[in-house]
Amino acid sequence: MSKRIILLTIVSSLIVVAIAVGVGLYTYTNIQTDKSYENAQKELNRYITMNDWYNFEIHNMEQSILSFYTNEDRSVIGLAEIDVTTGYLGSVTKQVTPDEPFDFVVLEDGETEYIAVHLKERPEDVVYLRLNGDDVSKDFLVNDPDN
Residue 67 forms beta bridges with which residues? Predict the structure, then answer.
């Protein structure tokens, strides 16, 4: 065999090995990410049930899981976030105002701010929710009028 064929065989083998290693690392990373989300979800559920809370909603974000929750008589609402990589769990609760049509709770996580709104009176009739800040106003679709 010539040197060129031997060299081509070695290079081809190295390429195949590199592709196999890349696919293996990609698969391993995805499995670990799924386990991180699974573990974070279990920890968040443990926190919620241990404190006798009940979830309104749970949202999976890029690096965290958010839970909007309440207590049994719905006199308190709360918002919790757990980071899927570090396992850090932060939460905030707020007493519900009985005579208001809605309540909200704000959770600040460094540079990110989460707002959860509990619409108490006929939430199915609310189409848009507008949040007004100092220099920002943003509308959120709550119930699509076409549905």
Answer: 58, 80
Q: Could you give the CA distance from residue 98 to residue 91 in angstroms, rounded to a whole number?
A: 22
Measured distance CA(142)–CA(147) in Å, rounded: 11
The pLDDT tens digits of the residues spanning 54-111 come to: 998 888 888 889 999 999 998 999 999 988 888 888 888 899 988 888 888 888 877 7
Distance separating the N- and C-terminal Cα atoms of the chain: 71
How would you classify the pairing of strands 102-109 and 112-119?
A: antiparallel
